[in-house]
Amino acid sequence: MTINRLEWQQLLPNTAACTGLFEREYRREPLNIAITQPRLQKSLHTFCHQHATASPFMLIKAVDSRAYLSLIHDTVKNIQPTGSEIFGSRYEINNAVISRVDAQSKSDNFAATDDCLYEEWLETEQLFGCLRKHNDSYTLEPGLIHKANGGILILSVRTLLTQPHLWFRLKQAVVSQRFQWFSVDDTRPLPLSIPSMPLELKVILVGDRYGLGELQELEPELIEQVIYTEFETDLVVNQDEDIVTWCEYLNSVASHYQLPSIDASAYPSLINIAVRKSGDQEKLPLCPQLLSHILSDAVPFAAPAITAQSLEQSEQEKLWRESYLSEMVLDDIDLGQVRIETEGFVIGQINGLSVLEYPGHPRAMGEPSRISCVVHLGDGEITDVERKSELGGNLHAKGIMIMQAFIAAELASDQQFPFSGSIVFEQSYGEVDGDSASLAGLCALMSALSQQPINQQIAVTGSVDQFGNVQTIGGINEKIEGFFDVCNSRELTGSQGVILPLTNIRHLCLKNDVVEAVKAGRFHLWAIDHAQDALPLLTGLPYVDENKPSIIGSIQERITQVAGNDRNRLPWPFRWLNWFNRG
């Protein structure tokens, strides 16, 4: 058995050992991804310096926002080879006749103006230019591909997928290395004949995994030939130098967005906030938008530098602004509109933990869910009420089936299981999905089968496999805090707490109220790695013991009693056979 009662120090990232690192003076260098994105840096260098016969396209998995496009653009500008060659053309219009010659000067109307450009959203005329008519005169206006001719263009995949005609025309021009003029209005041809112009252009496409997946379906052969890389979302922290790297990067972000300096006292708070975002004590986020927003929120409270106090004030104010919905959920529980029991012992009932995400609301919130199970004589089928009522998702159904398989293997009976049962999320009126309640459901079922009551002061979260191993789940901080808030509003007893997977310890970064309660012994967290570790905590009985009452022993005794009663139900002419089974 592995039952770890967690100390308060395990509920937050360990920043105490890094005090000396925080006291260093970090310079506000220009934002440079080289120290945090070595794969991206190397891939961009390869793309910028590759042979002319290689694919002119590159894919980067990243958020396709202006902040990311700008960062990639700045990196490309630093590593791009310099050249004095002039790319482009000069168009002249005389008497409604358009002629073209190769550009001789960068001041020519269709000579390239930059070797790297980017844009988050584009329309046809912005990308390809256009022919305009005013009165009886015509003018040609260049697009982005003309301005970046000979260089690199950085675009959003989302922009091209929502306007497929842009992508197909861009691909044709880049691959053929020739730009053919066309009418923006497909129903009207160009009023003048415009000579085509040579085009030497590379394109970097930036998008999330879904967008890149759609592009792959659209262009499978092209995607096979391109350079692919990713903007890494987190920095893995394995040693002190990784903390130093993140602090340097953080100061670069502050400098890039012209934010105040960061005081040494702010770094532990920043790491706590960052871990809440990454969901892992050993990973710190690298998203420049996220980090700049965290620092920007603290600016109204910073004088003159961003400190731990200013960060705490900004986080408290942000929580207050966004807490109306969570307060309404908690009020429903306090008023008894949603029934959650946090006292006493009940057979076949347990407090599972859920994470609620409402459309349009920026913050996920934890809420306990009352899971109940009843059993009766039957054919061994365990009914998942959520699935039967079409309110359970596929992952939820999978978790219930795995739970049943574990129980069948544990009892290891040659006879058909003589009980049937049903498991339900009480007062659940929307879809339930995910397998994080499978451990709670298993405990409720074992309680109902053994007739041993469960302590309602303890909530449970975790998924199980067919061997009973407890596995990692998501949203662990929100789930713990959701149950803590319910218990705290009813007054902490010192016996309340949460059972969680052992592998989730590294994901803990709990709010101060929970940490202080655990520190004072008024709330508890137990980390386990097997289902048999949960039931002794919940029922007070050992999971299995040949010498005294246990959960498995109680279930087997019930099965034996039912089997004996079944023999007594033989038709009266054959009841004499029971005589041979005595003893």
From TrEMBL:
Keyword Cell inner membrane set for record: no
Q: What is this protein called?
A: endopeptidase La
Q: Which reaction does it catalyse?
A: Hydrolysis of proteins in presence of ATP
Tell me its EC number(s), please: 3.4.21.53
Tagged with keyword Iron: no
Family affiliation: Belongs to the peptidase S16 family.
Q: Where is the Lon proteolytic domain?
A: 344-541
Which EC class, in a word? hydrolase
* Swiss-Prot/TrEMBL GO biological process terms: proteolysis
Which InterPro entries does this entry report, sorted A to Z?
AAA_32, Lon_proteolytic, Lon_Prtase
MF-aspect GO terms: peptidase activity
**Annotated organism of origin:** Limnobaculum allomyrinae
Question: Which residues are named in the active-site annotation?
Answer: 436, 479
Q: Which Pfam families does the annotation name? A: AAA_32, Lon_C
What are the UniProt keywords, alphabetically? Hydrolase, Protease, Serine protease
